Amino acid sequence: MFIYEKRLQFPVNIKETNAKLAQAIISQYGGPDGEMGASMRYLSQRYSTKIKNVQAVLTDIGTEELGHLEIVATIVHQLTANLSMEEIKASGFDKYYTDHTLGIWPQAAGGVPFNACEFQVKGDIITDLFEDMAAEQKARTTYDNLLRLTKDHPDVYEPIKFLREREVVHFQRFGEALRIVQDNLDEKNFYAFNADFDTKAPCLNNNCGCQK
Amino acid sequence: MNKMNQHQLLHFITEVSFALDDIALYMDTHPKCPKALACYENYKNMREQAVKDYTTLYGPLNRYQVNDGNFFDWVNKPWPWERECDC
Fold this sequence. Notes:
Chain A is an all-alpha fold. Chain A has helices spanning about 20-25, 25-30, 35-45, 50-80, 85-90, 95-100, 125-150, 155-185.
């Protein structure tokens, strides 16, 4: 069950109108390393592990990502509020405006729509956690790119700095989750096969006759 | 009753809530850490009081706090994505 709390995880109050920045930042709403992919990835991956710590990490980080999705949407919304037709034409926002007016729609900075293929649920928690750590790094790089674009816009810069920092923390927590999974593996499971799908490690000795 | 104005009180709730968000993630992978648990308890109590004050003074932050007297506030008070200067 999810309950809405009527506040942002980090405050956003942008006074300027800037459609050029909005077109870049929307990538973290529906782009390849954005918050929509992040939240859907973690919340969907929860079902294929029995390890309680990992279920908790995926639930809590997935939930926080929904909050980040709302922060990114708020930044884009405030940057595009009160846009004039002249500004829409001059900033290149006219292409987005044609399909969505000033609404918030999940797409990458280059206009590519959000697609579930931007994340994976492999049903193997080790595979999934390696993806999660890579995803946090990719999102961190994207926020670094956005920080360079927004450095002269403090109202925009501060929430993006916060979001970047959370990627670093999440990477750390996923690394710990992966360590917990690996610590719980059968000692014969040297190649880290899918511990939740295959119940026993295959015997590597062809001559022992154990049938495993 | 709380001496902070609405903006300050919401800012305070945002701060203590974030502390809880961050400690909770840490506790997911370190569930036996007594220091983290004590820290969580401390911020949780601060948040509970602040949210109670906020709800009484300025309206509900979630639907479970909505009642006969404040339903109007839940619907009509500004939503988090709105610019402060929009009103």
